[in-house]
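During the reporting period the student researcher (J.K.) took over the structure-prediction task from the postdoctoral fellow and processed the backlog of single-chain submissions. One of the processed entries is reproduced below for the supervisory committee.
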Amino acid sequence: MSSRDSIPEQQAPVLIAGGGMVGLCAAAFLAQRGIPSLAIERLPNTSPLPRAAFFHMRTLEMFRSLGIEEAVRTGSARDFVPEGSIVALESLAGAKLADIMPSLNEGVAALSPCRRLYLNQPNLEPILREYALRAGASLIQSTEIEDVWQDTDWVYVTAREVTSGRLRTFRGAYLIAADGGHSRVRERLGIQYQGRGAFSNSVTIYFSADLSPWLAGRAWSIIYINNPVLRGFFRVNRAAQAGFLAVNVAGDPTRDPHGEIDPSADSSEAHLVELVRAGVGVPDLPVRIDGFARWRASACVAERFQQGRIFIAGDAAHLMPPNGGFGGNTGIHDAHNLAWKLALVIRGHAPPRLLETYACERKPVAVFTVGQAFTRYVLRTAPWLERGAIDPQVDDFEIELGYLYGVPGKIHSDPHNTRGMPGSRAPHVWVKRLGERLSSLDLFGNYVLLVAADGDPWIRAAADVRSVFPNLPLDVYCLGRDFHDEQGEFCASYGLSESGASLVRPDGFVAWRSQGATAAPGKDLRAALEYSLGRPP
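J.K. obtained the following structure tokens:
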């Protein structure tokens, strides 16, 4: 009997391949909406290596919606200097070459209630895991996926326990493949990457060493190193006693026109110590090697993000160099985009057609973001590499908060100027509700109709629409009645007159807007909701 003939022993509405950061986020976002999931993870525990990730405003907004923002912020403050900068040096003991980002959160307060931060993934993943499990998700560890297939109603997964070799079969209505750059699911589906592929054989060296003589009193978050021995970057903990060095190029690239020098060819401890010392600029520095990981810097996107009932997310869907920290954030945003759509379809509020918008929305964003990460890699680390072929660099705010969904001819825009445009992330405005100061973003989670002060016809229209969609979660907030505009910025920020209304999706993106009153508000609002839900007109 083949594995495909075995009877599933366990099922869930959504299966998740991978229980790392993106998989756990998918489980958490689904659990937040009352949808159980089952994640299958190869590793027995979170990786002990202190992989530090840079989390952007938009990601922190998602953590805020889960109620874990404070825990994440506390963990970050324990490990890393807050509000740091990104610089380029010859070495830690050498000359400064450039100030890449003078302050981590400069200008952030005008756009978001959240601030950028760094946090080790081994510290983040337990927070996500605890939330997801407490809210109803399930996780099976030490189990590696071997095969996946689907029919018209179900997705089936066979997986083998790493220690016992026992083969297990699971089924779900849908599957999210968040199993990384070497995704077994993507491989089984025959989905290929498209793009530049690998352009650097890199190594990350985890080490302990006293770097305080060069870092004490300096709030540096990321330190790029460019010298004749290596090109890469340091990330060091708050005490300046441990961290990692990512080496993208070893040797003098001017002697190699392609810069294709493999730093992982010699992985002896002595060579790794030599590289750390070269990055610090101190040839006799005492260094202890705690671990290392080889990886390939790539810039590519999967040719498809959906195949039937299976969706791919995170590194399984896109690979990009770490410059800018966009990879993990983009994967988390994939999971967030998919979770609310799956929840509405599973609960019968929307047709399966809604799920087709996942690939339509997320793939263009992935292509844009991968291009921006590659541009930063070239400009910061490898200026000899395809410099004439890189995408023009855009401001980080446009990548973090300014990506757009379904706007003809535009993938991104300056979030200072989108002002509630349909397809953009709904703006952050400080408001008061029931005496509490909130961000407008704190009102989102269901479909939300935001109504300006003279928008009573929209309130009546929402009541009529509720009769057409009796179980659809739809919240209505009217300015001056349900919330108060602290600084008189709401209407201008959302592009509304005093009689306008804005419909915001569960993920906080604007689905539709009427800048003022219309002749048929009920008909207009219903049409907007039907379109957003993927219902035929």
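The committee noted the following: The two ends are 47 Å apart (CA to CA).
J.K. will present the remaining backlog at the next meeting.
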